[in-house]
Amino acid sequence: LAGGPPCQPFSTAAQWAESGRSGITDPRSLTLLAFLELAERFLPAVILIENVPGFVQGRTSALSIIDDELHRINARHRTRYRIEHRVVQAADYGVPQRRRRAILVARRDGKAFRWPAATHATEPVRAYDALFDVRPEVLPRPRGHWTDLLPSIPAGKNYQHHTSRGEGEPLFGHRSWFWSFLLKLAPDQPAWTIPAQAGPATGPFHWENRPLAVEELAKLQSFPREWHFEGGHSARVRQIGNATPPLLAEVIGRAVAEQLFGRAFNGPPTLCITRQRTVPAPPGPTPVPERFLARRGMQPDHPGVGAGPGAQRRRLRELRTEFARLLVLRMRWLPMARAAEPLLHPARHPIARQRLR
């Protein structure tokens, strides 16, 4: 039984939103509980869950809930499910994209899962290897206020090239914008993570200074050429960006099939992408357009970890929640606290005062 609950409640990409990274309290996380109900109904030989790293790390981790549910399933059905998890880098398995994903596996017999070896950790498949022979039907054009800056940013860089710590003009404050702002691919490196929401200035962009076509996004996710995506442009981008890279799924699926079902596989995965012998150099950066130069030195750098506006808003919400909790406790226990006050402060007790004299 394999599935991937909606990743937005656990994703760092959602932390810019006011409701971002709410974890298991997000209504979309109810699908995880439904998934575990199916696991109890069918008691499969193996349970496989895929999600973002925040699903198993930090304050949004769902591990404790999964552990508790599997413990109850084991007690009721005499199974031995034991969750194992690992955060893997998709590029280490031949996906031409840097994309960290959490993989969770639980075998019904309780035995350990042997994780597949990272076959491409030292020689990853690069963006050029995936895109050199892709011929999109329509090449999307850059749009929006900021896209004229794209030619001035080197391949593999983002807006931080134009900050006080970059090599370009100081047009933006360091770390004052989101990472994918004006982010470009480098042909000799794996692609940056493909997002599900494509804004006019949200990358990654092609090193030829344009948005990526749907066919190119699908190839960077390792989808087979014959796959088609329904809907308009935004809908297709969302389907591709929200997906697990099929090549990574094939690698994990092969490991499951070998260990539990006795399958044998010869040769590399069917969706693997071959590295090319040479990668051509991308176009070099061009001068910044004149109309942007008035921004030089106008925007301050980010104040630091935990000191930005988003972190301050989250901290304020946490303080308000804690204050409300303490207020409820005080109102609930106030009568008892008044009765116990002499015991908490012996010097105020009549007998204690007499002895102190």
Description of the molecule:
- The structure is a single chain.
- Strand 1 (2-3), helix 1 (30-42) and strand 2 (46-51) form a beta-alpha-beta unit.
- With 357 residues, this protein is an alpha+beta fold.
- The protein is 30% helix and 6% strand.
- The model is unreliable at 14-19 (pLDDT under 50).
Spell out the key features of this protein:
four-stranded mixed beta sheet, 357 residues, alpha+beta, 6% strand, 4 strands, 8 helices
H and E string: EHEHEEHHHHHH
Structural class: alpha+beta
Low-confidence stretches: 14-19
The helix content, as a percent range, equals: 25-40%
Looking across the biggest beta sheet, what order are the strands in? 1-2-4-3
Number of helices: 8
Mean pLDDT: 87
Please tally the β strands and state the result: 4
CA-based shape: flat
Q: How far is the first residue's CA from the last residue's CA?
A: 75 Å
Rg measurement, Å = 27 Å
What can be said about the biggest beta sheet?
4 strands, mixed
Which percent range describes the beta-strand content? 5-15%
